[in-house]
Every structure is written in C-alpha cells, then in structure tokens.
Amino acid sequence: MSRHLARRSQGAGKIDLENAGRILSSYPTKGRASLVPGTLDFTDCPYMWPHCTQPLYHGAMPFMFNATIVNGMGAVGWIEKPPTFTRASDDDLSEHLDVRFAHSETLWPWTGFLAMYVRVKASGKELASPGIARGTIAFTVASPPGAGEREVRTSDVAVPVTFHIAPTPPRERRLLWSQYHSVRYPPGYVPRDNLDAKADILDWHGDHPHTNFHATYDWLRNNGYFLEVLGSPLTCFDASQYGAILLVDPEEEFSEEEISKLTTDVNENGLSVAVFGEWYNVPIMEKMKFFDDNTHNTWTPITGGANVPALNDLLKPFGYAFGDRVLQQAVVPIGGSRLNVQAGANVARAPAGAWTHVGDVSERDARHEKPRRTNRKSAVASFFQVGEFTGPPQGLNPKPTAEGSSASPNATAKSGRLALFGDSGCLDSSHQGAPCHDFLGSILRFLTENDRSTGLTDANTKRGEAYATPADEPLPSRRVGVDFDAYSTTRGGKPGNEGSTTCGPNDPMEFWPAGETFESVSAWSSKRATSGRFSGRTPPARTVKDARDDSPAEVPRALIRAGGGGGGDVRVRATRDDDDDDDIDASAPFFSSSPDAKLGVPLGAAIVASLLMIARRRRRRGKRAGDARRSVQGVAVGASATTERLLRRKM
CA nearest 545: which of 25, 6, 78? Predict the structure, then answer.
C-alpha cells in the first residue's frame, strides 16, 4: 500500500503474495490474535486522513475509531482481558488522555470489532502548545481448545497509538456538524439531491464530512476551522463551546426537546446556525417511485432531498420556513459569489429585519422534466441576526424593546445568527456543479464573527417587513401513505443503523445519563445491538464464551454442544460495531508490506479459497449461460421480450 494516499481511498492495498508466504511459514501452530491496523499513528498524513488533519483538544466530541480484531486461534473467541491504554512515557502528553473502549462480546467468525473513544481531560485545557501523545492499547483474546487440546487458547495483543493534542481553539473557530439528522441508506429510499443525476438515484454516499463532503471538510481545516461531528440529538452538546452548528441536507425529524434546546441556544447562548436545505416536492417524489427487480417491491421516496417539513418545525420559532418550489439550473449572485443551484428549495418565510436575497430562478415541477423560467421571483438565501428584527417571528408573541421594535421573548444582545440556503449541492462532492466554499466562508464569518462586510448583509436586501410567498402557496407537508416513522430514530423507529435518542459515549461526559460511566464496554455494545438505547441491562445469552467458566474436563463437551472451535453450527448472539466511522477490512493483514504483519492462517486460507471458488464459479456460470443462450436462440426464435426476460432470470 502507498503511504502517500489516504487509507480510505486505497483500502488495504494490493495483495503481497511473497509477504503472505513468509507470514504463513512462521505462523504459530495454535494461531494468534491481532488488530487491523497493527499500528495506529493518527499523525501520519495523508495515510490516516481525516484523523491526522485535526488534533484532539479538551471539550471536543470524542475521537472515535473502529479497528478489526482478527482471531487466528479459532472461528469463535472472546476478549479475555478487556482493552487498556498505557502511556508510552512520562515526558509526552498522554497523561491528558481519557481512552475508553467498546468491543464485540463474541468474536465470530474469526473477527470482531474494537472501538475506542478518546477525549482530552480537563488537565489538557491549558496546554501551552500542541504536542504528541503516545501509548499502547493492549488486550487478550481467548478461543476454545483445538482438537486434542485441554487448555483454552489465549493471545496477547499490543498496538501502539499516537495522537496530536493541542490547546482548545477559540469558540469562533469551532464548528459542529449534525450527522444524527442524516437518514442513512439502507433501509429507506432517500432520493438523490441532484435531480439531473439519473444514473445515481439514491442518496447513499453518507452525507458525512469524511465521505461526499470531504472537500468541504478539507476547505474548513485549511482555513483554520475545527469541525466536530455530532452523532446524537441536538440535546447532547454544549452550545457555549461552538460558534455555529451546520445542518446540511438533513432528512431526520427533530424532536420537541431538540427544537426547544436549539431555540434557547440561539436566543440565550449565542449559538449561530447554518442551514443548507434541499428540494422537497411531493408530486415530484410520487413520480420517482420505481419497481426494484432485486426486492420485487415498489420503492417510493420517504422524503425529498431534505426533510423540509421537519426543518420548518425547527425554524418556526425564528419565523423561517422553506417552500416546495424546486429551484434548479440557476446561477444566483449572492455576496459577490455566483452560486450554482442544482436542485434546491426556496425560502418561503423570513422574519422582518432579515437580509433576504430574491431573484429570477428556473423552477421544476412534476409536469415538466426540465427546469423552466416563470414569472415569479424566489428567495434563495436569507441571513438574520436574532434580536434585531422589527416584527414578531411566526409562532411567538412580540416583546417590546427599548427601540419600540419587537424581538424574540428570550433574545438578548448575545443572541446568535441564522443563515439559510436552499441547496447543499455546491458543498457535495458527489455531483458538484461548482463548489461554493468561498460562499460558505462568508457565511461563517457572518455567523461566528458578525462580519457585515461579506456582501451577504447588503442594505438593499434587508427587509423591514416579514417576507412570505403568496397565500395560495402553503408550506410543504409530510407525505401521506409513507411510514416515515419506521426509518426515523427520532420518531422511535429502529432502522438498524442509527444511534440512540439519548446521549451516549460518543458525546461529552456531562451529557451522559445519570450514573452511567460506559466502563462495561461489552455490555454496552450488546445493549445497543438489542435495544438501540444506552439505558438498562440485557442479560447475555449463553454462548461459546461461557465454556471458559466450566471445568477443564467439561470444556470439550461444551464446545461440541456449541459447534466446537473447528466450525459447525455455532450459534452466538450478534453484536454491532458502535459507530460508522472506521470499519476496516478484516482481510487487511494479507495486504501488508511489513514482514512482521500478524495474520491468522485460517483467515488467510479462507480468503484465497474464496477467491478461487468465485473465479471457478464465474467460469462455470459463464459457460452454462453461453450454452443456454445458444439453445434459446435455436429453439425459441421469436420469443416475446417477456419470455426472454424470464429465461434470463432462470439462467
């Protein structure tokens, strides 16, 4: 593999057959366990991008990383001694680290996960300068005895780890990205954001700063901003620590608690909010349904490019709302930037005193496949200083001020600012027409520094009265006939790949449930897999792991009942890895350029055998398919298209 490319872009690299042979020739008879990757140097750029690009500091969201435990001692195993972190020396900064772990309760087959959560303690708050923190992660893996053996197999694993650590940056340079409100694919059909991307009909690229928004992440870091990712509800962060929160292309619902907290954070705690929406139009969504040949079901979108009705609930206390006009293929001048709107929503409501940018923009509807010019103007962006508007926001009672104007009941001189733009496509690297990072920079200067020289707050765009689309254009409503609750964690659904509605180990400690320390890491991962929540205890099911509690004479019988260490019908309780950040291919040790790489022989043999089997089956399948096609051509000449399709499926 190349150290000059990011690990995410090249995976494990090319197979090294010569090195694999050396590993197999010196491999222990009873096998051993290892961790993939075998070293964790988070200062190594660009190989460890994005982790190498931003240091750890006190008060940040925990650094999370998933590695793969490879168990070469048997198909079934468990963590005998839980993971620990040990300082490398007394002269580095590792004394300031708080490292916690979660791991698979049962390693099967051959592998499991090890997740780490790393924070900087309060002792690191006043660091004089950045530095390096080093240490070692150690744990012990155990597996049932092999054939003819009486003792449980064990293997100690030690992996060096290195971090950048730095003083806490100032508030105006710290940004928070809400990842929790992105509904991931699968299982729901979330349609594409760019309606012109016909070949890519699903929104399945993650909508994460480290995936399709990676260019935006790099731009933020290169311009001195520190971006943290919030994987929990809006109730799980301290607003006083951040200059702004970014809500980019959200599809998830917002709970009443989240709406209430964000309103308070903006009005009283000075938090600013940047919202990059997406298109939302029910007739267009209805036309996007299709029959899927794989599932034999008709798929229909559960929401639009973004969940605009949910966003409007969140923005209602400030007098803002998006509409259901689909603005497309337009170049809009805002603040000195010319923005390419690919498929966005219009701003349908804005409070008095907001800087609202209105222009002639092409629109698309369900009756016309291509955008067309209309005789109406649309608002594409709006910016607002809470506390300065001259009219009551929608849904709130006005409160007179000394100047005779109205303000939010809780607005203060320290209130935050809002920025709305109806399209996130210019930040998304997947189908990006033209990047708008300079525009994003202007927004952030307005939000975090109250910079009024960016052109966004030009006097010609400030409105003394509230802005609204005509009365015959109601605000967008949620789809009828679609069970969105099944895909929404906020609404109580358990789609299988989301987090919890409560705060957990991926949040600051002060937001953890009372009495919870998340020290029982294995129990926590089990609870999450079975209930999706962090509270309560789930009694563990009996697995092969329980054989270690039997007497030596009873161990073989227990293993035989469970299927044994050599395979068979081993029934274990499934566990999930606990974040979506860094799942690493368990086959990676075979793709190492280091002769000291550690790998289980059974896993390596299984990989090679699987590749040979796949190739052999493809050759056989191709031969059978060719014979069948020739037979069909000779016997079923003139068959209908439907008959040919059925024959192809049968083949």
Answer: 78
